[in-house]
């Protein structure tokens, strides 16, 4: 009697197409395979659900496991909440659906399994299924944590490195660490490039390397003395002061121009403009008089002086001679 075939769900029937589509979506940049280039856009900051090599020319996103390895192996970062949160989120929402439908490596494994060849039974190897957790611990956590690339000097591995491509005549300079970034800030890096790039452009590799090393030594010495290479702010200050003075002068001239009819007058009604306020009555009010008396002295009295003040304002001096 023939065995009845197990009925497959619609999702399982189209599983191969779903796997192919997921692989294509996570590797959209197919022309890069011919160019030999990598996509380095903003999509690489986002982790895709399945395993997908970051260095694949067509990769449109980052592999969560690879990103986790990079963080573990970095001395700058201790823990990545983003990557850990992504792994937990994908695991809770999708579970094994990622491995069965969205992971490109799972699809490649199934395609390899369909190649006619002798197959080994794994029924007796079930105790080894726990070995995958040991592989995960060693390959993903321990190796990146312990076997790291030693770049730089000091406890924080501070340093600066330059990479050259002779064929493409490209270069890349990388500054790493708090102390190195203190010695080589953005302006310092620009000045460092001016010191050696011209030699490389003339194919004087020895001259370029010598000036690169000498300039680095100079910058590090200055930073150690507390005087790192920085852009002189004086020209900018002068520009700001000059611009401020010009603006202030212009404003003062405009205000003075608007007040050009204002002059000191003798009488109060002279401040009234024609057609403005009409004074119908004006008078002077006498308030009081301050009188100062002094004793008439004989010729034997010594001379002196006195001062007087009137209640209406003003002051004067009097005396003898």
Task: Break the fold down into its secondary structure elements and pairings.
Elements: H1 10-13, H2 15-25, H3 31-35, H4 64-72, H5 81-93, H6 97-102, H7 104-113, H8 131-146, E1 159-165, E2 170-176, H9 178-183, H10 186-201, H11 205-224, H12 234-258, E3 305-309, E4 315-319
Helix pairs in contact: 4-5, 4-8, 10-11
Uncertain residue ranges: 300-321
Q: What integer value in Å does the Rg equal?
A: 44 Å
Estimate what percentage of residues fall within beta strands. 5-15%
Q: Indicate the percent of residues in helices.
A: 40-55%
User: Termini separation (Å)?
Assistant: 155 Å
Return the structural class.
mainly alpha
Strand order of the largest sheet: 1-2
**What is the approximate shape?**
elongated
| Number of contiguous helices | 12
Q: For the report, how would you describe the main beta sheet?
A: 2 strands, antiparallel
Mean pLDDT: 77
Give the beta-strand count.
Answer: 4
Order of helices and strands: HHHHHHHHEEHHHHEE
Brief descriptors of the model:
single chain; 321 residues; mainly alpha; two-stranded antiparallel sheet; two-stranded antiparallel ribbon; 12 helices; elongated; disordered C terminus
């Amino acid at each position: 009697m023939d065995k009845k075939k197990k009925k497959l769900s619609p999702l399982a029937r189209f599983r191969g197409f779903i796997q192919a589509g997921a692989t294509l979506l996570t590797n959209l940049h197919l022309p890069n395979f011919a160019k030999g280039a990598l996509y380095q856009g903003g999509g690489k900051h986002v982790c895709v659900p399945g395993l997908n090599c970051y260095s694949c020319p067509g990769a449109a996103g980052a592999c969560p496991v690879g990103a986790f390895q990079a963080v573990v192996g970095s001395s700058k970062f201790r823990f990545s909440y983003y990557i850990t949160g992504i792994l937990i989120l994908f695991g809770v929402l999708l579970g094994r659906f990622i491995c069965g439908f969205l992971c490109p490596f799972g699809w490649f494994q199934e395609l390899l399994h369909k190649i006619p060849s002798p197959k080994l039974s794994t029924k007796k190897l079930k105790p080894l299924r726990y070995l995958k957790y040991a592989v995960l611990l060693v390959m993903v956590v321990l190796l990146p944590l312990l076997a790291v690339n030693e770049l730089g000097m000091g406890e924080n591995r501070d340093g600066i490195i330059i990479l050259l491509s002779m064929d493409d005549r490209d270069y890349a300079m990388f500054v790493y660490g708090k102390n190195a970034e203190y010695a080589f800030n953005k302006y310092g890096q620009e000045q460092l490039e001016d010191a050696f790039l011209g030699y490389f452009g003339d194919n004087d590799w020895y001259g370029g390397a010598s000036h690169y090393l000498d300039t680095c030594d100079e910058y590090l010495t200055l930073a150690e003395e507390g005087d790192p290479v920085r852009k002189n702010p004086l020209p900018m200050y002068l520009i700001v002061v000059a611009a401020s003075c010009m603006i202030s002068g212009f404003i003062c001239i405009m205000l003075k121009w608007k007040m050009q009819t204002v002059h000191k007058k003798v009488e109060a009604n002279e401040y009234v403009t024609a057609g403005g306020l009409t004074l119908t009555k004006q008078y002077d009010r006498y308030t009081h008089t301050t009188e100062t008396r002094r004793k008439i002295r004989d010729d034997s009295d010594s001379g002196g002086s006195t001062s007087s003040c009137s209640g209406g304002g003003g002051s004067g001096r009097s005396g003898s001679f």
